């Protein structure tokens, strides 16, 4: 890495927001995955659109998008970003006994959108839990991780499958 070291600590060891003003704007993208496990009968109700609280998938998708836009309000020291695109995909999968969440966030700016993608995936999963808990309380949320990141000085990162 060239230039000054970026840190959330100032010279006295106090927490600060990193100054990214000297960094160049580049096109940046991050993709995060998550998963919520549920019983087959709960998943069948979600897929059929028969949950008591309504269209679970549409609500979770919108919640994830809204969360990505509010990441700086939720994560201390996270930069507010002008996000250009957020996509949240929810894939019901009977073989995996649940729903796989994929959140893709894009911006052009001086810092990346990994936190926005992770926040979108997390909030989408939490929304799925909230909307399904009347039917099942044993659901598990997990496997939330970044699978792709591009743009910026650190270049491209692609998570190796199974890692």
UniProtKB/TrEMBL annotation:
EC number: 4.6.1.17
The reaction(s) this protein catalyses: (8S)-3',8-cyclo-7,8-dihydroguanosine 5'-triphosphate = cyclic pyranopterin phosphate + diphosphate
Record carries keyword Transit peptide: no
Family annotation (InterPro entries): MoaC, MoaC_bact/euk, MoaC_sf, MoCo_biosynth_MoaA/MoaC, Mopterin_CF_biosynth-C_dom
Keywords: Lyase, Molybdenum cofactor biosynthesis
GO terms, molecular function: cyclic pyranopterin monophosphate synthase activity
Residues the record marks as active site: 130
GO biological process, one term: Mo-molybdopterin cofactor biosynthetic process
Function: Catalyzes the conversion of (8S)-3',8-cyclo-7,8-dihydroguanosine 5'-triphosphate to cyclic pyranopterin monophosphate (cPMP).
Family: Belongs to the MoaC family.
Quaternary data: Homohexamer; trimer of dimers.
UniProt-recorded name of the protein: Cyclic pyranopterin monophosphate synthase
């Amino acid at each position: 890495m060239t230039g000054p070291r970026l840190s959330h600590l100032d010279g006295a060891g106090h927490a600060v927001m990193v100054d990214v003003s000297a960094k160049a704007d580049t096109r940046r993208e991050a993709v995060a995955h998550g998963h919520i496990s549920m019983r087959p009968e709960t998943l069948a109700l979600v897929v059929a659109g028969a949950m008591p609280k309504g269209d679970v998938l549409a609500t979770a998708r919108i919640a994830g998008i809204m969360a990505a836009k509010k990441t700086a309000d939720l994560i201390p020291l996270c930069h507010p970003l002008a996000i250009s695109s957020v996509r949240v995909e929810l894939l019901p999968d009977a073989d995996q006994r649940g729903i796989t969440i994929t959140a893709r966030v894009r911006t052009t700016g001086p810092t990346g959108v990994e936190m926005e993608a992770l926040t979108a995936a997390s909030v989408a999963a939490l929304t799925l839990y909230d909307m399904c808990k009347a039917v099942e309380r044993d659901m598990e949320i997990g496997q939330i991780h970044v699978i792709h990141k591009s743009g910026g000085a650190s270049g491209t990162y692609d998570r190796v499958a199974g890692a």
